[in-house]
Amino acid sequence: KETQAPSLGKDSADTVIIGGGCVGVSLAYHLAKAGLKNVVLLEKSELTAGSTWHAAGLTTYFHPGINLKKIHSYSIKLYEKLEEETGQAVGFHQPGSIRIASTPTRVDEFKYQMTRSGWHPIEQYLITPEKVQELFPLLNMDMVLAGLYNPGDGHIDPYSLTMALAAGARKYGAQLNYPVQVTNLNARSDGTWEVETPLGIIQAKRIVNTAGFWAREIGKMIGLQHPLIPVHHQYVVTSSIPEVKALNTELPVIRDLEGSYYLRQERDGLLFGPYESEEKMKLQDSWVTNGVPPGFGKELFESDLDRIMEHIEAAMEMVPVLKNADIVNTIAGPITYSPDILPMVGPHQGVRNYWVAIGFGYGIIHAGGIGKYLSDWILEGEPPFDLIELDPNRYGKWTTTEYTAAKARESYGFNNIVGYPKEERFAGRPTERTSGLYDLLKSKCSMGFHAGWEQPHWFYKPGDETGYKPSFRRTNWFDPVGREYKQVMEKVGVIDLSPFGKFKVKGTDSVKLLDHLFANVVPKVGSTNISHMLTPRGKVYAELTVSQLYPGEFMLVTGSGSELHDLRWIEEEVMRGGYKVKIENMTDEMGVLGIAGPYARQILQKLTSEHLSDDSFKFLQSRHLKLSDIAVTAIRISYTGELGWELYHRKEDSVALYSAIMEAGQKEGIDNFGTYALNALRLEKGFRAWGAEV
């Protein structure tokens, strides 16, 4: 280990990276390698302190999602070449890995995952029990129905990996300074930062928070509450096992999904790490309330084998040679969890030139790919591909500390849960973000979670099997959704669309700004269009509907999941171009009801004296009206592809508006519909969804 007298070396930098774990060091390596001058990393104790040094170091090509597989894949390809490039050994083992299916549902899940593997060039195979046994001869085969096999998977030594990335970063000109603690951050009016340390101040064009479980403390310096919480994770290392020692080749890593643990070879013994259930797992919540203890760096927690005993027993059952093995080491250390286990990566809304790469529950496999992804984004002004699931702005004011803790418990316990399509998770719900109709509708339907909101997925009728019943096959919602689909096609339906992101834009330069932002003409007063914000390379960054309500005053509407993602991009362009505009986020104050189907006009006409005929209220027109004396902004648009309107109104008027419409539609047989039916209708109409087909 090298020792050095701490120094700042310089008083200004292009990019200051705060935190010297594998993620921060990877970012320094990638930025410097891409040619960025003046990259400075500050680490308060030593490189790898925190969560990196004690990680189990697993590397896998597999991810249940689609976009993150690219990150995993890049990391592995990078790690394969690092030693040659930097001269530093990284201890990379690639014996492959096998996920074990021991229930029929798990076999369904593997088949589902195999249908998605064609998106990626990586190898993935569904293998028979015989093949599983051939690759891992020490398994108890009574429980094995199938395996999901990824050649090239394995594990790496996290300390050596970080040191190799550090050597590379220095080779390309980055400065890695430690021990240097960041004590304060000051935002300057020109968008640059002053980074305060005991050794002086560095002026930085941008800062990147890669501080691991210290990330909350860094966020607090600038008034942000990052939703992160440290989790206790334990893994166990055994002494030498004769049966392991006798093998000619290294065993593949196995993941016993029902037993909820991973297991790999460590020299001539085995190492295994469980993910215990949400009731048993342990959070370090005192760090959230009182801050991380100032000196904590390369410390560990006290181990607690009782907490993981059922997993140890499951592992002995699956790998019988463990029964006679001695435990020589138990590592219990902090890893940081975000509410949904996924990290937060990218620029942060509401603060200029402040970026994050935090909340990594699996930092080793993500470090390489995220370093590259973020470096590309910083240097080119746009992300190389869509990873909105990691957007730090997917959380907001509704993400309380209680919510974060409840979700982290659930996410940790659900680490190896079956990954169904249309998955819902119920911890921490509902948040404070409920629409005006939530109390009225919650007992009548199956609700889904969208960016903090509860939104009806499908509605119950007498005789339906209610509740959330996930499956890889047709399940309880299939027929009811068909019923709702028919309702909208043949009669008329009402849907709660309140979770939409809604912004008002007005001011001298509003037309100029929107003309610059969108690859479309600016709609005239009383008109609406669907417009796309494009990146410098012409890729679609976002899709919004734009309406000019009054001269120079616009309403922009986006999907619930893109609210702050889109707002950040707009605010950035406003700052960059010096536009004189005022932007107001109306998402939480404004309710939205959709009404669609052949009788939609007939019903609304009963509630207003305004003419709604096709001549007087055309498709993609917007206007202010009173429906049953309630003020609404009505847009003639419907994602269903049927005749319909979206009705924007004050959230406190939602119940009255909904009741008036339902009352007026009795004769026409009006009814509710949810987002599942909406999705089926828009697919048949050929409307593409940003984030799905686009």
Automatic annotation (TrEMBL):
Residues 442-693 form the GCVT N-terminal domain. It comes from the Eukaryota. GO terms for cellular component: mitochondrion. Residues 14-377 form the FAD dependent oxidoreductase domain. Gene3D superfamilies: Aminomethyltransferase beta-barrel domains, D-Amino Acid Oxidase, subunit A, domain 2, FAD/NAD(P)-binding domain, Probable tRNA modification gtpase trme, domain 1. Signal peptide: none annotated. InterPro entries: FAD-dep_OxRdtase, FAD/NAD-bd_sf, FAO_M, GcvT/YgfZ/DmdA, GCVT_N, TrmE/GcvT-like. Residues 380-433 form the FAD dependent oxidoreductase central domain. This is Dimethylglycine dehydrogenase, mitochondrial. It comes from Phalacrocorax carbo (Great cormorant).
